[in-house]
Amino acid sequence: MAEIAKVFEVSVEEAGDYIFSPAGVVIVFRNQQFQVFTESARHNFLRRVLTRHPWDKLLTAVTEHGVSVRLRDVTEDVSNKIGLDAMSTEAVLEACYESNPLQLFFLRRHFSNSPSQANMPPS
Fold it and tell me: What pLDDT, on the 0 to 100 scale, is given for residue 17?
């Protein structure tokens, strides 16, 4: 796997709402490829938004189909938690999950050995 260059938290604001809520994590690799980690139902929508809009616009927010999408660079926060030498996809996802387990519960399936708990928020 390519070396990780950036980590972004993806937040969405539904039409008629006034709060951006975390909806996923985007890992950008040094080879400029990226991978989206989100709930299955949102994956295609978020991937399409990320490929259609310039990244600098995504940092302030873009709106598509009435839903606003915004990226927040969390690379420094994640690297401070796990260290630059330990920057693997699994470690990044686990660090992001631990920072917000109620909203990013779907990340758990990428590093946990318990698939039955993968799609359920923690109680």
Answer: 84
